[in-house]
Amino acid sequence: MACGRDTALPEVHQMAASLTGNHHFDHFIQIVLENEDAVAVERIPYMDSLARRGVLFSNYYAVAHPSYPNYLAMISGHTFVDDEQHAQPDPAAYSRRELGDAQLLINAPTLVDGLEAQHTSWNAFAEDYPVTEQYPKKCNFESRSGLYARKHFPFLSFKEFHDHPELCAHVRNLKWFRADSLAGYTFIAPNLEHDGHDSPLPTAVKWLQGFLNPLINNPGVMDSTLIVVTFDESSNSVRQSVLDSPRPNVIYTVFLGNMLKTGTQSTEPYSHFNLFRTIESNFGLSPSIAPQGTQSIEGVWR
Fold first, then answer.
1. 37 is in which domain, residue-wise?
2. Number of structural domains the chain divides into
3. Is 204 among the domain residues?
4. Half-sphere exposure for 28 (CA within 13 Å, toward CB)
5. 120: helix, strand or coil
6. What is the predicted pLDDT for the residue at 248?
7. How far apart are the two ends of the chain, measured CA to CA in Å?
8. Confidence at residue 14, expressed as pLDDT on a 0 to 100 scale
């Protein structure tokens, strides 16, 4: 089984507001970049400008090391670290050499189940995904192809995508992303250079600026769309996982959208799990599959 390590997370303060059925946005876009400490990202002028334009979460945690369990948590509410009951090596893409990023075949629900049940539209886009049809009839489960890496595209780790190829029409190459036809839920995985995994941070920021600016400068998009820019984990994977460093797994995360108290900062300790619960709550997905007691993100909405 692939090895990984969950991150011990601080408790979120109890919120007075109801955490059920809070609809703040009609469209949701999550863009995930790679492996940087929050303090390093916040020094980049463009990332600082996003923070001043939206809501910066200065106490936001990834939930594991290395990358892969964090991606799984983003769409399922669980890391599946050492979970042999639900997760087994995926013969289509597993390699022991990838250690904690070795690809799994997971028999467990995801956000997709709730979205489908609620008839809420959704798309998952990966840059350089090796299927180029506009609406694929089947998924590609290879571990890697060029600058595309399956470990950063977590949907393909779940058994339902093997068993129900009709879901693969929503698992698409990024070239098909259109701002004028947004789904309710959209996940964006840049390639290994543009997410910063195989390149320095400025390369990822340059790509992000080119992708994001047409969206955030479009009032028609921003009036109804919450855009989340986050990172999978901090850069201290070896220190925390091997040396058991107490340094927290804090990552840059910003919310962008006109439904927010823009130009503000949240210091509440949140994580990928809380964002997952927020998506569930916003779209009324039930029952929740987030870890028991996980709270939605509150205090940032107009």
1. 5-10+22-283
2. 1
3. yes
4. 22
5. coil
6. 78
7. 45
8. 38
